[in-house]
Specification:
CATH architecture of the largest domain: Beta Barrel
CATH class of the largest domain: Mainly Beta
Strand content: over 45%
Number of domains: 2
Number of helices: 5
Radius of gyration: 34 Å
Helix content: 10-25%
Length: 473
């Protein structure tokens, strides 16, 4: 070899060694040489697997010097365990393991159901002095639609509950609810929630301010819409909501040619709410919320010559928590306020509790408690508003995989502000649910209602029993 060739022999050998170190084949060979050493130091690195077969080593003169391996190489030897889903996801997955899977509809999943059965009431006309008993047919269709998207979420629901009585069709029950909710994940820490809801109910009896002389129920409708923007600032969570609600009350027949016109009850309630919470931990979030909610009636002056438009809202502070599979929910102290346009109507306020709590002492038993406070509208002369406090406790126990027992106690206290009138409604109920199959449920329910009017001749009691089948897909 010439003198020039000898001159470049050293650099050429160095380049060859570097190329060998960076070539895929050499990397693979190097990894294979490292694995036996790791297994000798820690035989449990590959749990439940046989040690890999290592090819014969290269001659000592050709073996590469040992090199420190990157993180990816170590992970192929001893993989990290999969991340366990959050407690809330685990709980939701096992709350109802026998629930029907629903129907696949592309990017959506449909959950239809239909309940049908019989109803008996010993006081279908909720009369204090002349109760009438009757049998009825109950039909309860329902449809729920959930999106199956990677980002964002859309849910739609429609549910009806209709009871058709045989001898007293004027006392038929009608309940219809529809709701839609869309969550947009704008950014990692920003969400936009849009929601709309519709409700249709029939009200009867003095508890709903329907005249005792009424020969039909009052049809009440509510429509609401809201837009909520949520933003995270580290541990601080803020939600700003704009909303509007429309409340429409139907007329009531009181006999031939006599009708109570309820147009003066109709009102719209726009509003804005701000809620701020601080995440002490992922499971505990104290929060505060304020809302401004004026009410504007369809008629400026009501049947008593009063201007019932008002300014008001509420403020509350509380704690939202999901500390374990045993406790979860939200509880807050609340204050409602309302000031009326008419100077003869006193400004009113109400202090109370808002709560939605679930206690699960065992996998088979749960106790749910809800409470709410509010200032409702009234057309009663001399009264500014109705302060309402409602509470409900429901106990459910899975006796067997296909048998569920439940019982509940509830109360509603209504105080008319401005006049001496208070009403108390007590409720108790029990139910037995038997799953005949994954898609068919047999249910038996009993409900007891005791209404204390606080005025002579207004109290009544009703016992109601229902039984039927529910079909779900």
């Amino acid at each position: 070899m010439s003198r020039g060739g000898k001159r470049y022999r050293g650099p050429a050998l160095a380049l060859a060694v570097v190329a060998a170190l960076w070539s895929p084949g050499a990397g693979a060979q190097q990894a294979l040489e490292l694995r036996p050493g790791l297994l000798e130091e820690d035989p449990t690195a590959l749990i439940g697997e046989e040690p890999p077969q290592v090819p014969d080593a290269e001659p000592e003169s050709l073996a590469l010097p040992p090199q420190e391996q990157p993180q990816e190489t170590r992970l192929t030897v001893a993989p990290e365990p999969p991340v366990e889903p959050p407690a809330r996801a685990r709980r939701a997955a096992r709350e109802n393991p026998h629930a029907p899977p629903g129907l696949n509809a592309g990017a959506f999943r449909l959950y239809p159901s239909l309940g049908i059965g019989g109803v008996y009431s010993d006081n279908v006309n909720v009369s204090p002095t002349a109760p009438e008993s009757d049998l009825g047919l109950r039909v309860a269709p329902e449809l729920r639609i959930e999106s199956d998207w990677v980002r964002h979420a859309l849910s739609l629901s429609m549910a009806g509950d209709f009871v058709f009585f045989e001898a007293h069709p004027e006392n038929n029950d009608t309940d219809l609810d529809a709701a839609a909710a869309l969550r947009l994940d704008v950014r990692h820490d920003t969400t936009l929630d849009l929601a709309a809801a519709y409700g249709l109910t029939e009200s009867f009896g003095t508890a709903s301010e329907v005249p005792a002389t009424a020969t039909s129920k009052r049809l009440d409708q509510t429509l609401s819409a809201s837009v909520a923007l949520g933003q995270r600032f580290g541990r601080l969570i803020a939600t700003l909501t704009g909303e509007a609600g429309w409340h429409v009350y139907g007329n009531v027949e009181q006999g031939p040619g006599v009708t109570e016109i309820n147009t003066d009850r109709n009102y719209v309630q726009p509003g804005v709410r701000l809620r701020v919470g601080y995440e002490v931990s992922p499971a505990v979030v104290p929060f505060a919320e304020v809302a401004y909610q004026p009410r504007i009636h369809e008629l400026t002056v009501d049947r008593s010559g009063l201007r019932r438009d008002s300014q008001g809202g509420f403020a509350r502070a509380g704690l939202a928590f999901d500390t374990s599979d045993i406790w979860s929910g939200e509880v807050a102290l609340r204050y409602d306020y309302r000031d009326f346009d008419d100077s003869t109507l006193a400004t009113v306020g109400a202090v109370g509790l808002d709560a939605s709590l679930v206690w699960r002492p065992s996998r088979l038993t749960s106790l749910a408690f809800t409470a709410s406070t509010g200032l409702g509208e009234t057309s009663t002369a001399g009264a500014s508003a109705i302060a309402d406090w409602t509470g409900q406790a429901t106990l459910a126990h899975t006796l067997r995989d296909n048998i569920v027992l439940s019982a509940g106690l509830g109360a509603n206290y209504a105080s008319y502000r401005g006049i001496a009138r208070d009403e108390l409604t007590l409720r108790a109920e029990g139910a037995v649910s038997y799953l005949l199959s994954r898609n068919v449920e047999l249910a038996l329910r009993y409900a007891f209602t005791d209404f204390l009017a606080g005025t002579p001749g207004g109290d009544y009691v009703e016992n109601r029993v229902s039984a039927g089948l529910r079909f779900e897909l």
